[in-house]
């Protein structure tokens, strides 16, 4: 079980297996588990960044559409 601080400052927990398969080296199992946790944290951060970017772009698009609509109405009134 691992824990890290997410982008909002809230603790996030991850669970991965750190057991070495069969007669494997237990240290290797731990290293593998840490690598899996790192990958999961990166994927979660990238996913959050994508959602934030899409939200911002959508907001900007709505703002631009509103400005274009007002401009078209102003030109129509001339």
Written account of the structure:
- The protein is mainly alpha-helical and 78 residues long.
- The chain contains one helix and two strands; from the N terminus they run ββα.
- It has one helix at 26-77; strands at residues 2-5, 11-14.
- The chain has a two-stranded antiparallel ribbon with strand order 1-2.
- The longest helix has 52 residues, at 26-77.
- The radius of gyration is 24 Å and the shape is rod-shaped.
- The termini are far apart.
- The mean pLDDT is 80.
- InterPro entries: GON7_meta (IPR027893).
- Pfam families: DUF4611.
The gist of it:
The protein has 78 residues and is mainly alpha-helical. The chain has one helix at 26-77, and strands at 2-5, 11-14. The protein has one domain.
Features:
78 residues, mainly alpha, two-stranded antiparallel sheet
From the spread of the alpha carbons, the general shape counts as rod-shaped
- Domain count: the total is 1
Total beta strand runs: 2
Percent range for β-strand residues: 5-15%
Cα(first) to Cα(last) distance is 67 Å
Spans where pLDDT lies below 50 across 5 or more residues: none
Along the chain, the helix and strand elements come as: EEH
Q: What layout of secondary structure does this protein have?
A:
Layout: E1 2-5, E2 11-14, H1 26-77
Antiparallel strand pairs: 1-2
